[in-house]
Amino acid sequence: MKVIWNDKIVDRNEVKIDMEDRGYQFADGIYDVVRAYNGKFFTLDEHVDRFFRGACQTDLELPFSKEELKERLTTLIKINQIDTGNVYFQITRGIASPRNHTYPDPEVVAPVFTASATVVPRDQEKMNRGITASIIPDTRWLHCDIKSISLLGNIMAKHEAHKNGADEAVLHRDGAVTECSSSNMWMVKDGTIYTHPDGNLILPGVTKIVLLRAAEKAGIPVKEETFTVEQLKNADEAFSSSTTIEAMPIIEIDGCPVGSGKKGPIVEKLQQYYLNEVE
Ligand code: PDD
């Protein structure tokens, strides 16, 4: 497998990560995940824009332009002959020694960039069947809009959900649903779609942008406003969204069926729209 390591394309096993890389020591870095369908990226501009925004929010000076980054990622999927799959890319603030919380001088310490690509076909069967979820308190920080590589809060929540026998964690702050551990969260009540507004409490999902467009085209009303755990439990449909799972029905929450307990008609419409967009 070929990967990107800084400005080079190298063999996966040639990459050497320094033990004093700030990503390794402080989780001082940002990442993104973008998907390719049939050899072509889907919504690459939106993912790259979010990556650049995250760099700006964290004062991380990127060593490339948006165009250069897009070119490198495109070369990566070509070289690895990725037809349909995921590309993970991240940058850390670089290797700084001795360990010191203060940001190092970017004139002296260069960031470390890596990217890899994996073949991952669409899981249509799972998207039809849906997944189960467990309600978990959102104990993460207050910069959830930054796609930080520091995901301890997210993975702790996912682990709790798994211990409860569920596939995904639906997070809430004081009873208000924010998002899931690795996806945005949606519910449908009386024909209207609800999802948390963007801001510092959720990641502004690229898939969310696509689904909002889909709903508008289909004439389905959407309210980007907070809903409670109670409202979610009484919803007609629930689903989560991300680059890797598209629009995924959530058919059961804490052991109770959501609506009919099967994939609902509104998420089905959004899935159809998504499929048309990517194919
Ligand atoms: N996760 N919220 C969180 C916390 C996420 O980690 C993700 C994506 C999303 C959805 O964002 P998007 O639609 O842009 O993929 C929302 C990626 C896929 C991951 O960490 O693997």
Automatic annotation (TrEMBL):
GO terms for cellular component: cytosol. It holds the Pfam family Aminotran_4. One of its GO terms (molecular function) is pyridoxal phosphate binding. One of its GO terms (biological process) is D-amino acid metabolic process. Its EC number is 2.6.1.21. It comes from the Bacteria. It is an enzyme of class 2 (transferase). Its cofactor is pyridoxal 5'-phosphate. It catalyses: D-alanine + 2-oxoglutarate = D-glutamate + pyruvate. The keyword Cell inner membrane does not apply. Keywords: Aminotransferase, Pyridoxal phosphate, Transferase. Belongs to the class-IV pyridoxal-phosphate-dependent aminotransferase family. Homodimer. This is D-alanine aminotransferase.
